[in-house]
Amino acid sequence: MKILSVVGARPQLVKLAPVAQALEKAGHEHLVVHTGQHYDADLSEVFFAGLSLPAPHVNLGVGSGGHGAQTGQILSAMDTVLEAERPDWVLVYGDTNSTLAGTLSAVKLHLPVAHLEAGLRSFNRRMPEEHNRVLTDHAADLLLAPTEEAMRHLAAEGLAARSVLVGDVMVDVCHQVRDALLAQPAVPALPEGLDPGEPYLLCTVHRAENTDSAERLGRIADALADLPVQVALLAHPRLLARAEQHGVKLERGAVRVGRPLPYAGMVAAVMGSAGVVTDSGGLQKEAFLLERPCTTVRTETEWPETLADGWNVLVPDPTELGRAQWAATVMRPAPTAPRAAPYGSGDAARRAVEILAQRLP
Ligand code: UD1
Question: What predicted TM-score, i.e. pTM, was given to this entire model?
Answer without folding.
Answer: 0.96
